[in-house]
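Run log, item B.
One chain of 320 residues. Sequence copied directly from the ordering sheet:
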Amino acid sequence: MLARLSQPLCDATPRRVTDSAEIVPDSERRGFIGALPPRIRPFASLMRVDRPIGTWLLYWPCAWSVALAGVGRRWDMFLWLALGAFAARSAGCVYNDIVDRDLDARIERTRLRPLASGRVSLAGASILIAILLAVALVVLAQLNRTAQIVSLVSIAPVAAYPFMKRITWWPQAWLGLVFSWGALVGWPAVTGTLGWPPLLLWFGSIAWVIGYDTLYAIQDIEDDALVGVKSSARRLGDKAPLGVAIFYAVALALWAAAIWSVRPDWLALAALAPAAFHLANQALRADPADGELALRLFRSNRTCGLLVFAAMLVVGLASR
């Protein structure tokens, strides 16, 4: 996401950080990354290992799908898909920074990113992606043929995502396509086939992603406008909280349909009640003028994912 410009827009030359006192961001001086050897820290920053929220949000649709399928005898799949989510999200972050490296160098909040500041070379970032993709291939080998094919189909939309904010007002919808893909993988990883339940989970997750990423985009509305980057938050403006509420309602309706397709029982739908309350609280509290609150609400979707997972697991195991 974009933040305040560090130089006038009329200057098309990316700003490179050269002052050794400022070249290392605070995030690399503390916490997990700060405990790593100095030469490794920029690569850890590229992978966003200090911000695991992205991995959680990518993982939950995978876990929901496995859970709703009844798990079968593949309890290990939860761990394999967690590793796959970590590798895929990390590789995606590196790829996104490669694509946006010149733009990031002009943005105050992103100018110290490893590629934008020149602390990591393009070759180094490419090698890191190769390593992460090798890990993803190990995970891919644990899946059956159907799940493998579905997983590989995601490569094209993932590769296109970084360019969507330059093309459409709704890059959040494209993010939803790719961040929800795990819903299409988990079910066939257990059952060997696709069907309506994973498709409904996928569509529901897309709506969920649009909702929570609209919250995330609220914090950058002004800066996105300055650099001409499009987002659902900019498009919705003051109506962003209403838009978030609508997308969350659509997500809940589609998740309920997925549950009904597995277990047509009104009591089964009650399993979604905790998640529904959680999402309603987000929508009611959202304020397009409060970026810090929007960020906190966005991060709380890690808990929402857990609540939906609990619902899918209860229904899936009860339907075996």
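Observations after the first pass:
- Residues 70 and 317 are 5 Å apart (CA to CA).
- The radius of gyration is 20 Å.
Flagged for discussion on Thursday.
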